Structures are given as C-alpha cells and as structure tokens.
C-alpha cells in the first residue's frame, strides 16, 4: 500500500468509474464522425466557389483600375471582395478541423481539376468559363484560371485537408 495520503482516494475513484453503467465507451470503439464529414464536405463544396468568385472579381477590379489609370489608386469594393474571398478560404481550410473532406473536395473540384484541365488543354478552360453567366466574375475567374491561381489555391486546400487528416490520425493512434 502506498504511503501517499491520497492513494486510497485514487483507487476508490478509479474503481467507481470502472464499475459505472454510464460508461459505454470501449477502447476499440471510435466516435462516429458522419455529421462532421457532412458539414465539412458541404462547407467545402458551397464556400469554395463563392470564395474563388470573390477573389477573382476583386482581383479583376483592382487590375482594371490600375491598368486604366496607370496609378496606385485603390478600389475599396475590390479590396473588400479580396478580403472576403480570403476569409472564406480560411473558413474552408479551418473546416479541416472537423473533417478533411471539405478542404479536399473544394480544392479538387474547384481548383485542381479546372486548373489542370486549363493548363493541359486551354480550350477546356474556355469551355468551363463559358458555362458561367457573362459577368465580371466570369472574366475574373478566367484570368485566375489561366494564370494558375485556381490550381494553386486548389493544391493549398487539398494540402490543408491532408495535413488535418494526418494530424487527426496521429492523435488517435
């Protein structure tokens, strides 16, 4: 028997906890994560195109202003659009804390696949952009697509999702 003054209390506490009927969790059972996967996947599929559209539109506005005036004037709406798109992409990447599905799906579907398609066969890039209604957003997306912005953002989102999955797997092991 231990000479520590709380040794008896620890043993009583552990025995009471192990005998409890409320403790249904076993060591081999993993918590169900279906809701986390669904929330993350939906967030990635809905927020990623909105974020990319905001980034593309804001970038186009800034580019047009600077090219038209040959000055360093700022467009407050363009800056707000860029900031909003960046914040939404941060939210998508943070959804990786729930499940890696969101950042990976959003990155693959809206970044990597269109980016690779446009780089491999540029005509496909034009066909993809023509599926969108004609607007400043479509022109911004076309610019972002052909300069490799969508490809880069897509790989970053996929990478953040994979990193979150690896961290979770190590933590659970």
Largest sheet: none
Mean pLDDT metric = 85
Terminal residue distance: 33 Å
Radius of gyration: 24 Å
Query: Looking at the structure, what is the overall shape?
Result: elongated
Uncertain spans, ≥5 residues at pLDDT below 50? none
Helix content: over 70%
Q: Which percent band covers the strand fraction? A: under 5%
Total number of distinct structural domains: 1
Transmembrane segments: 35-57, 77-98, 105-124, 144-167
Region (Disordered): 1-30
Keywords: Membrane, Transmembrane, Transmembrane helix
Biased composition (Acidic residues): 9-24
Can you tell me about this structure?
It contains seven helices and no strands. The chain has helices at residues 7-19, 34-69, 76-94, 101-120, 122-130, 136-146, 149-172. Helix 2 (34-69) crosses helix 4 and helix 5 (122-130) runs antiparallel to helix 6 (136-146). The mean pLDDT is 85. The chain crosses the membrane at residues 35-57, 77-98, 105-124, 144-167. Residues 9-24 have a biased composition (Acidic residues). Keywords: Membrane, Transmembrane, Transmembrane helix. Residues 1-30 are annotated as: Disordered.
Protein topology:
Blueprint: H1 7-19, H2 34-69, H3 76-94, H4 101-120, H5 122-130, H6 136-146, H7 149-172
Helix pairs in contact: 2-3, 2-4, 2-6, 4-5, 4-7, 5-6
What keyword list fits this structure?
single chain; 173 residues; mainly alpha; transmembrane
Concise summary:
The chain has seven helices and no strands. It is mostly helical.
């Amino acid at each position: 028997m231990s000479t520590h003054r709380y040794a008896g209390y620890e043993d009583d506490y552990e025995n009471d906890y192990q005998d409890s009927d409320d403790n249904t969790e076993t060591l081999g059972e993993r918590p169900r994560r279906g809701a986390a996967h669904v929330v993350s996947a939906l967030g990635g599929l809905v927020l990623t195109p909105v974020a990319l559209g905001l980034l593309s539109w804001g970038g186009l506005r800034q580019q047009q202003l600077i090219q038209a005036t040959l000055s360093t004037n700022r467009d407050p709406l363009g800056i707000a659009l860029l900031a909003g798109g960046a914040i939404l992409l941060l939210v998508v990447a943070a959804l990786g804390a729930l499940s890696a599905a969101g950042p990976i799906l959003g990155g693959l579907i809206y970044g990597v696949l269109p980016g690779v398609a446009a780089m491999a066969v540029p005509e496909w890039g034009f066909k993809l952009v023509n599926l969108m209604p004609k607007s400043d957003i479509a022109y911004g997306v076309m610019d972002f697509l052909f300069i490799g912005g969508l490809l880069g953002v897509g790989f970053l989102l996929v990478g953040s999702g994979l990193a979150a999955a690896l961290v979770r797997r190590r933590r659970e092991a």
